[in-house]
Amino acid sequence: xxxxxxxxxxxxxxxxxxxxxxxxxxxxxxxxxxxxxxxxxxxxxxxxxxxxxxxxxxxxxxxxxxxxxxxxxxxxxxxxxxxxxxxxxxxxxxxxxxxxxxxxxxxxxxxxxxxxxxxxxxxxxxxxxxxxxxxxxxxxxxxxxxxxxxxxxxxxxxxxxxxxxxxxxxxxxxxxxxxxxxxxxxxxxxxxxxxxxxxxxxxxxxxxxxxxxxxxxxxxxxxxxxxxxxxxxxxxxxxxxxxxxxxxxxxxxxxxxxxxxxxxxxxxxxxxxxxxxxxxxxxxxxxxxxxxxxxxxxxxxxxxxxxxxxxxxxxxxxxxxxxxxxxxxxxxxxxxxxxxxxxxxxxxxxxxxxxxxxxxxxxxxxxxxxxxxxxxxxxxxxxxxxxxxxxxxxxxxxxxxxxxxxxxxxxxxxxxxxxxxxxxxxxxxxxxxxxxxxxx
Amino acid sequence: xxxxxxxxxxxxxxxxxxxxxxxxxxxxxxxxxxxxxxxxxxxxxxxxxxxxxxxxxxxxxxxxxxxxxxxxxxxxxxxxxxxxxxxxxxxxxxxxxxxxxxxxxxxxxxxxxxxxxxxxxxxxxxxxxxxxxxxxxxxxxxxxxxxxxxxxxxxxxxxxxxxxxxxxxxxxxxxxxxxxxxxxxxxxxxxxxxxxxxxxxxxxxxxxxx
Lengths: 440, 210
Fold this sequence. Notes:
The complex is a heterodimer of chains A (440) and B (210). Chain A is α+β, with helices and mostly antiparallel strands. Chain A is built from 15 helices and twelve strands.
């Protein structure tokens, strides 16, 4: 028998009241835990994914959408831009480096990004297996995709049009897995990377097929044999087209082509700080493209989200406040019934100090339970959130990471426990046993 | 002498002081404190237990003057040396029978009597793990006696232990108190206005409100 055990017995003696208070407190703390985890990981991830990208250039539209689609690969792209215009930009002296992206396809909901090898360098990827793409239709898979779709080197798949599942397939040419990346915990984990040429060609065939839909031999061509398919193309378009599928793709800069081609967006690095002042204005007013800065757009986004976050925080604080009050009332009420108990304890040798500790222990144990349950609940909430949203950006959040700040949650909860126990504990300390024992 | 009471006086706030008769008691002896309701019997019991401090005079238990020890030390001294049986059992409902007795050991920091044996002696060993709420009144009273005995105190104080009991149970409870006190060599003081108890304990003093 010890004070700890006695307090525990008192708590479990009224399970409903104890349970309700613990649960209320846990709910409030769970919300705070979720906010804490999301905030921490979101910001970290946002900064990590945008590292090295000073400016994003794309078709006119919402700048936030442009950033979300080309840096974080969550929203729809704003449209395409002419490669000619894009190439002009490269020659500007304020521009250090330009990485073109061709977006718009997916495989099982994972986005296919046509780019060059600079993109791999930008994110400092490492290869778990294989190597980067050399010829069209070779792809490199992010670590998460390789794991989820169970693809290995040499496997082939067909892309679909659009950036979400369920659109029609580009079934004319199969993609071949040439490399699988090591997990990096950033956006690349969930991307299928390939050359810009691959994206162009898969759309070209689409167009061609529609054009020649009346030609019986072309319609008869199915996707089961890529060789037969290229033969069909060959027959249709001539020898020139066959060769391009085996020609090495551009490793840096823009692909070489005589045709009028388009890309979706450009990731741009400044040469010097002056570029930050001049370049966006120049692009936005002087060209048909728009420029957006990831850091500016993201801070704008956080400002917008901030209202919601403070609302949730407010709700959490109210819940914790109610829980604190609930604990106070529970302790205070039970104390009225227990004054005799306390007198008895004094009569058999307990000191005032021990009774004080007894009441405090009860409040603190209650809130400690609430804190532990709250943190656990918070992580479970987040886990549910992450597993239910499959492809969106929250799916990159790790629900089972524990932060130092969570210790503060426990500390905070214990503070609530102590606060709620002060008055009841003091009243227990003050109880005159002689009076109490004679009263009954 | 184990217990000595000399020129003891106590005044409740705003009331005239009560003057208690002197008496002394040795180990193994029993004493009844009789008096009408409101005569100050319970006040005397509280003074004997060190729960109240006298205005004048004092109680000496086993050579220690109770009024000289203060606060926390008095609580511990009481826990070690004085067992109190209250008018109602007042057991801790959150704990079972055995835990209620362990409580006495814990707070008095004393090994005391073996609890299973004590329960056996009082005929309630089958209730050791029972919740306090499930006990009958007689059983609860016996548990409260067991709690008072658990630390092998030198002095046992009983406050109207029989007021809610029938004749047969009254006889049993007093007999039990006497035999247990004798067993551990404790002095027994019973405060009562119950005439039935007089048949079993001949030694008595009377408190009169003056």
